[in-house]
C-alpha cells in the first residue's frame, strides 16, 4: 500500500483504532493539520479536533449533500466571516461553522465518527462535524479525502473560543467493531460493565438509569441558568458555579420535572466500566424511554472506570434536555444505553491516571470550567 493509502493502518485490523494507530495516520498522511499536532491531542481511542483561524455565522444549520462542498454552501448561507485568532464570542441561539485545522485522507478501509468532547456537552454547546458531500452529520465515510468543518451552536451560555480550541473529537473504525447482545452480555459477566450485576441489555446496548435517590433536599443535579456571563472554553476552574448553575434538589417523591428547552446535568445510578480492550458510546436519544435527549458527548475511552487506570467504576454524567413537552423523571428510570465496541488493538495509554483525565472516578460533576 502507498503512503497515501495509510499503510500503517492495516486492512486486517477490525475495531476502533487506538492512539498509536492515530499517530501513525499522521505519519502516513491520512491525517494532516495546518498547525503542529499538540502532545495531548490524541486520546486512547480518539483525536481532539481543533478550530481553525476563521469562523462563519450562518443563517441556519445545513448539510452540503451529495456532490456539494461545505465551502460552496458557506458562500450561499454565511452572514458574516470573522477571525478567531485573537478569540471571539459565540452567542447563544446562533449557528456558526468553523473550518478545522485537521484534514483527512482516509484509507479505503477506515471510516470515522465524531462527537462533542465531554466538556463541550457539559456546557450545552451543540456541535456537529461536517464534510464535503455529507448527507449525515458526524459521519465520515471510508476513503474520505478532504477538509473538516465544525458546526457550533451554544445553547445555554455564550462562549469564548479561539484558533486551536477543542470542542469535538473523532474516532476511527475498521470493520465491524460493535458487539452483539450475546457478546455484550458475556463481556458484562466477565468484566462488570456496570455496577448492576443484573444489567438491562437490549439489542447491543446496556441500560443506564437516573440517580435521584437520597433524602429530601439531597443534590441530584444542576440546571443551567439563563443570561449568564460568557465561558472561555480554554480556561479551567475559572467561573463560580453559583453564577451559572441552579442546584436541583431531590423532592419528597424522588421525581424531577424536565422543563422544555432547559438544560440539566444529572448522573447515572450505575457506575460504568470500560475495559482497556473496548470503547463505548452513549446513544444520545432513545424514543422508547422518553421525549428527551441524553449525553451530547458520546465517547467513553478505554479505561474509563477501570481500576488499573485509577477508577473503580465511574458514573456517567448525563447532559439532559427535554424536547417539546415537560417530562417527569423518576429515580431508577432508564435514560439511555451504552453501546460497546471492540478496540482493534490495546491503546498505549488508558483514560485516567495515564492522561490525568478530568472525569475519571467521577460522580455528579460539572465541566472543568467551574469551581
3D architecture notes:
With 371 residues, this protein is mostly beta strands. The protein has two domains: 15-174, Deoxyuridine triphosphatase (dUTPase) (Deoxyuridine 5'-Triphosphate Nucleotidohydrolase, Chain A), CATH 2.70.40; 181-342, Deoxyuridine 5'-Triphosphate Nucleotidohydrolase, Chain A, CATH 2.70.40.10. Helices cover 10% and strands 37% of the residues. It has five helices and 26 strands. The strands form six sheets. Strands 2, 4, 5, 7, 9 and 11 form a six-stranded antiparallel sheet that branches. Strands 1, 3, 8, 10 and 13 form a five-stranded antiparallel sheet that branches. β14 (201-202) and β15 (205-209) form a beta hairpin. The termini are far apart.
Integer tally of domains: 2
Q: Report the principal-axis shape.
A: globular
> Rounded to an integer, what's the Rg over CA atoms?
20 Å
* N-end to C-end Cα span: 51 Å
Averaged pLDDT, please? 89
Quickly count the helices.
Answer: 5
- The structural class is mainly beta
Pick out the low-confidence regions: 1-7
CATH topology title of the largest domain: Deoxyuridine 5'-Triphosphate Nucleotidohydrolase, Chain A
CATH superfamily of the largest domain: Deoxyuridine triphosphatase (dUTPase)
Percent range of helical residues? 10-25%
The percent range for strand residues is 35-45%
CATH class of the largest domain: Mainly Beta
Reported for the largest beta sheet, the result is: 6 strands, antiparallel
CATH architecture of the largest domain: Distorted Sandwich
The number of distinct β-strands equals 26
Protein name: 2'-deoxycytidine 5'-triphosphate deaminase
Domain 2'-deoxycytidine 5'-triphosphate deaminase C-terminal: 182-370
GO molecular function: dCTP deaminase activity
Organism: Jiella flava
